[in-house]
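Hi F.,

I've been meaning to write this up properly since the lab meeting, where we talked about keeping a consistent format for the predictions we share between groups. The idea is simple: the sequence comes first, exactly as it goes in, then the structure tokens exactly as they come out, then a line or two of notes. No screenshots and no reformatting. I'm using this chain as the first example so we have something concrete to point to.
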Amino acid sequence: MVTSRAVKAVKQSKSKKAEQEKASVYHFPIKGGVIKRGLKRPTTKTSFKIARPIVERLLRCFIRFEVTGKENLPSSGPVIAVFNHLHLLDPPLHIIGMLPRDIIVMAKEELFFYWPMPVNRILMDIAEAYPVRRLGTPEERQK
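Output, unedited:
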């Protein structure tokens, strides 16, 4: 189910054609897709610029990682990246790999409302992430 925030974002993005061409969402190129970035989000952009070097240095203290394949991404235009992550450190690593591109984050709604750690809600608010409501039970989603 699409949230009203996501619908509002899509409506706003339709009215800003010039910005849509410059913007990006995630990893795979899309043409004429539903998700196009056209919103000005200075808060998010600034947050990511500030947080990226801090998070990258913190993560490098604990794990070794290398970003590969960035040359396969188009240098401009919208893209979609979908990550299948194994643990909680994967999403920040993927975001670090995508930067300096503009990013719209989407995450399961449990991270916003039902997760026992309030820090997740704070991080989702900083990233201006969109909650995604997953339909059905976990077993049904595995099919």
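Notes:
The two ends are 18 Å apart (CA to CA).
Residues 42-62 form the longest helix (21 residues).

If this format works for you, I'll send the rest the same way.

G.
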